Predict the 3D structure of the following.
Amino acid sequence: MKREIIITSDGSSSIYLPEWDEPYHSKHGAIQEAYHVFIMNGLEYFKGKEKLSILEIGFGTGLNAFITFIESQKRNVQIKYTGVEAYPVLPEEVKQLNYVEQLQAKGMGQVFKKMHTAPWEKANEISKDFKLIKQEKSFLQVDDNNLYDLIYFDAFGPDKQPELWSPKIFEKMFLSLKDQGILVTYSAKGSVRRALQSAGFVVERLPGPPGKREMMRAIKKSI
């Protein structure tokens, strides 16, 4: 499927799929959306915790992993980060992404590059406190149990790939999380909320990022 590099409203780049009329991130701002959904309402939820295990559904451009690395340095937290991606971004596309500049992450260009050049299916030490495992597979193939504190659910929209927002998928996510773990996603669709609840999650609606009224956070709570 054809992919194009675009610039979103906050100046940060993203990838756009013309055939689906679907961007990888919000056109209102890729970085703004990532920080709001995954950092402010995800990583921040575990403020004070010294170690975290994170699963990202949709590694894509590596933006969420990169800003998580930046924030982990500020917060002095050890991160084990697993990113699942069925269709990896190409090296020539990575070169066109402007996240290092837009985030004013001086000296971290090599970190972003390393995240993309690191071999798949292996544990990679991005820093002494940040380990990255990239898995090239369908989200339907996720089969973990009680491994993660936090899931960044960043799949393409439910209107484009409804099978990735089904009770079946969220049951896999539920099993993958530790007790009291959370899943955060930009979507606030009623069908997604019901699928999450069907899988056993307690779901809360939260204010959304720029251009979006709401988002959701789902919590795995013991009975």
About this structure: The first helix runs from residue 30 to 40. The longest strand covers residues 177-185.
